Amino acid sequence: MQEISKGANVSLTALSEDAGAVVVSLGWTSATGAGDADVSVLLLDENGKIRSENDFYFYNHPAAADGSVQLLGKTPTANGDEDRISVDLTAVPEDVARIVVAASQYGGARFGDLDDLRMTVSDRAGEPLVGYSIEDAGVETAFIFGELYRRGEEWKFRAVGQGYETGLTGLATDFGIDVLEDTEPATATEAVPAAVPAPPQEGGEAAVPAATPTPRPAAATESGATAAPEAAAAAAAARAAVPAQTRGRAPRTTRKKVTLPKVAKKSLAENDTWRTARLFPVPSLKSDREREVRATSVLLSVMAQVPELGRRLTAGFGAPAGRMQTFTEVPLPHGDTPKRPDGVIRVERAGKLWTALVETKTHGNPLKDEQVQQYMDIAARRGYEAVITLSNDVALDGSPVVDVKIDGRRKHKVSLWHLSWAEVAHQAQMLIRHEGVGNAAHAWLLQELLEYLQHENSGCHGFQNMGPAWVPVRKGIEDETISPDDERAVDVVESWERLIRQVCLRLGGELGQKALPVQRTRRDSDPRARRVASAAALCADGKLSAELRIDGTSSVIAVIADLRTGKVRTSVDIPAPEGSYPLATTKRLLRALAEAPADLHVQTLVEGENGPRGTLERLRPEPGDLLPRDGAAPGGFRLSLIKGMGNTRGNTESGFIRGVDASVDRFYHGVVAHLGAFEARGGRG
Fold first, then answer.
1. Strands 386-391 and 352-360, how do they pair?
2. What is d(CA 556, CA 550) in angstroms, rounded to the nearest whole number?
3. 266 C-beta neighbours (distance < 10 Å), count
4. Is residue 338 over pLDDT 90?
């Protein structure tokens, strides 16, 4: 990969023969784990202006109809997370001269608060081509990281690094997106981001609001009402940025999309023994082979019929936007014995074909290195672009799911990608519950796919097993006989990271918000070294720990599994509002937690030491018990729930994996979801 400095440019064609489509990655880290930014992409003409409002892509308008641009969302990396954008350069309209890639922050945050600001461009095969790091970020609230631009018949990349103290509004104005003056105070309804569909009408249809930049949600009460005037004012300022073409008329609304109602219609069955007919029945599945064949066929069929899902699952793998066809059990020559990959995906665009072989595993069965290696060799010989593995395992950056060798002598490169069944379910959930699809039939197909994946007989339940090292490591910790350099402890730490990633996928799909693990190490640190250090800590204190952050909340959720006590602790630290009276603060906190579990532990945080603590049940009648005896002002509060974890390997209801997932779910819905009213009154740090 070539590193360039600010202002430099490089030809993508000179760096790769496979640069017709690229994946642009924007990344950063934060010492607190709370830093974040929103990515946006602008298509500009020769005059450096957008052609229409459709040329501005952001979190509420994430994809171009022609497939030229698609925001793929955040992806965990070894040392944080990054936003990835798929750009099909062959599909970019001829009158687009530049593609600007930017990011903006909200709520008063600045880019100087983030570390390791970086942009990377990779080719269709996932091979990094060029990278650029921003070293001089300060008070800026928006940044242009870089741009792709035409020079004759080729595309080039330029490292820009231009910052704006005026945020998204200032950046948008430079490119022809006018800013309307908004003198009316923002209402609670106006503060809701445009990505949230309107309430479903009869038939399940919901209109998607106009693709104009709208604010991130302000902290809200349980009913969704905005509680802080200052948050509403900030929302109004962000909402004011709309394309110049929309002035003087109502905002343009995109075509209707369909989401499924959250409340199911009343059943017409006489009793609970009547089962709804399913498009993809699963009760008869008996063997692993049957599960793999059925799951592959079901998924690939729905991908071909529902363009939104097919594109969502393949765009990050370098597939173009085009006509997709899928096949199963395709015989391909390989020596004396033909091989039959579980599936083949082909996408056609402008007479060119993109092809990926698919290898599927279900029910926790591991992928086989030798088998995947054979498919990589077949794909290279036949000029195919990718091999996609699909299993219950969850991929981690810097930790391969299978070990294959790439023959560097071959001119044609084949990329190897991995999907988890949990990721497939997450994307289906996001489409049918939160973002919408093209028509009711597509929504119904996605619902049937989700029902299939969630059935106990499908074998497609995501990460289910902590691996062979789990039992001996847990026993060694209980007996205090495990060595700090035991390699099996590293395997357990890696499995723990996969579990946390899956918890984030499930919770994010349910909420319609991005949920990601938090890493507090620098981006250039070695993932292996980090896991070795975590394994040594596990052997010393018997605890697995992780943090996760949910978009739209200001708090980081900490998860600690204590293998010695058999308890899972979920907690969150929230700062106390500055300048408020301590007793009034504690009363307001307890009012916000009126619906929280009675066994919630609340502890006052005082500088230099931990303050008073107690359960919510005991503190509700006596809020003053949370105040320090010496009159010191509370610096914040730590809210914790403690739950017993299972003793099995994770394949039963009482298993460790399900215990951790249930703990996070209970903590979010029982505690974090109720903190909006408290934080909106100034509880943000």
1. parallel
2. 8
3. 6
4. no
Q: Is the pLDDT of residue 515 over 70?
A: yes
Phi, psi of 531 (to 5 degrees): -70, -35
Residues found in the chain: 685
- Round to whole Å and give the CA distance between 163 and 140: 5
User: Tokens 């020596």 belong to which residue?
Assistant: 335
Query: What pLDDT is attached to residue 236?
Result: 40
Question: Strands 343-349 and 352-360, how do they pair?
Answer: antiparallel
What percentage of the chain exceeds 70 in pLDDT?
82
End-to-end CA distance of the chain: 38
Model's pTM, two decimal places? 0.76
In whole angstroms, give the CA distance from residue 289 to residue 292.
5
Spatial distance between the Cα atoms of 427 and 457, rounded to a whole number of angstroms: 21
Do the beta carbons of residue 634 and residue 560 sit within 8 Å? no
pLDDT of residue 409: 65
Cα 403 from chain centroid (whole Å):
25
What pLDDT is recorded for position 649?
46
3-state SS, residue 388? strand
Residues 6+ apart with CB under 8 A from 7: 158, 159, 160, 161
**DSSP state for residue 683 in the 8-state scheme:** I
pLDDT digits (tens, 9 = 90+) for 454-503: 998 898 988 888 888 999 999 999 988 998 889 999 999 999 999 999 99
Measured in whole angstroms, the distance separating CA 40 from the mean position of its chain's CA atoms is 16
The label of the residue with tokens 């086989």 reads 368
Question: Residue 536: CB partners within 8 Å, gap ≥ 6?
Answer: 484, 485, 489
The share of the chain scoring above pLDDT 90, in percent, equals 38
Q: How confident is the model at residue 272 (pLDDT cuts 50, 70, 90)?
A: confident
Residue type, 315: A
| Residue 337: exposure state from Cβ atoms within 10 A (0-12, 13-18, ≥19) | exposed
What's residue 78's pLDDT?
63
Q: What confidence score (pLDDT) does residue 615 get?
A: 92
- Given a contact cutoff of 8 angstroms between Cβ atoms, the answer to whether 56 and 50 are in contact is yes
The interaxial angle of helices 487-511 and 421-430, nearest 10 deg, is: 20
CA 138 to chain CA centroid, nearest Å? 27
What is the Cα–Cα distance from 451 to 484, expressed in whole angstroms?
43
C-beta separation of 318 from 293 below 8 A: no
Chain centroid offset of residue 217 CA? 17
Spatial strand order of the sheet with 543-550 comes to: 515-517, 543-550, 556-562, 567-575, 636-644, 601-606, 609-615
Which residue has tokens 């070795």? 532
What number is the average pLDDT over the span 20-49?
A: 85
More confident: 553 or 78: 553
CA 556 vs. chain centroid, Å, equals 15
What is the enclosing helix (H) or strand (E) of 417? strand 415-420
d(CA 567, CA 351): 58
Split at pLDDT 50, 70, 90, the class of 220 is very low
For 164, the token pair is 């704006």
Distance, CA of 243 to CA of 60 (rounded, Å): 14
Tally Cβ neighbours within 10 Å of residue 518.
21
Alpha carbon 104 to its chain's center: 18
Summarize the confidence of residues 238-247 as an average pLDDT.
39
* 421-430 and 307-314 helices, crossing angle to 10°: 130
CA distance 496 to 543: 11
Q: For 130, how many CA atoms within 13 A lie in the half-sphere containing its CB?
A: 23
